[in-house]
From TrEMBL:
This is Alpha/beta hydrolase. Keywords: Hydrolase. It comes from Arthrobacter humicola. Residues 21-221 form the BD-FAE-like domain. One of its GO terms (molecular function) is hydrolase activity. SUPFAM superfamilies: alpha/beta-Hydrolases. InterPro entries: AB_hydrolase_fold, BD-FAE-like_dom, GDXG_lipolytic_enzyme. It holds the Pfam family BD-FAE.
Amino acid sequence: MKRQKYHYGEDPSQWGELFLPDVAAPRGVVVVIHGGYWRSQYGAELGEPLAKDLATHGMAAWNLEYRRAGNGGGWPNTFADVLAGIDKLGELADEHGLGLDRVVALGHSAGGHLAVWAAGRSRLSGLGAPDADRQLARRADDGGAVHLTGVVSQSGVLNLAAAERLNLSNGAVSNFLGGSSEKYPKRHKYADPMSAVPLSVPIYAVHGTEDDTVPFSQSETYAGAAKAAGAPVQLLKVPGDHFALIDPKAPAYRKCRELVQQMLA
């Protein structure tokens, strides 16, 4: 296995680390997006064991870091970073023989939110430009973008409106978006994966049965709305708590790895 770090911007948090398996041409790429309720005290070290494991199992993995609330992230910079970080794969494809016809995101918790949100980038223009800067809207519409072809959401925060109402993690949504939905309604709508339903790419909403960090209803309401709209979404319960999903030794994580392998096959 080889690993190499690349920056996609000038900020210290704008980087990713590419983990490559010991095969000539890995099929597709897995973008690993860590969680932590979008707060700066949690970083890409959470995704590193997953990226290592994926590479060990023959997959190229891109462990993505991004600016979070508290270190220059939040609205709109976290969103711009995730899209720019995924697009960086376009520059790395030739150098490393990466096939970009299959690019699957594996996102945990807040990373699940960012993964599903990024998978809907082509639908964002239909929501109208929010009170963001225009640079984010331009990046979302970029014709040269690297598009996700599937997502495995691991206990993702997929319904921001409900997460705000429930005051998850002591106001994490408002902290992330710079204010409440009452103050910034367009911003909240633009950021909510529920707004982009239905997506045409397959989404697996995987959730731990003993998760007391992100409620099961977050995956359930998203999957229900998406299915009702005709989207290829599947809701799966797996044994374990919130962090079993990012423990390479846990059955919950192994199920996620199997789903990623299916999407790349």
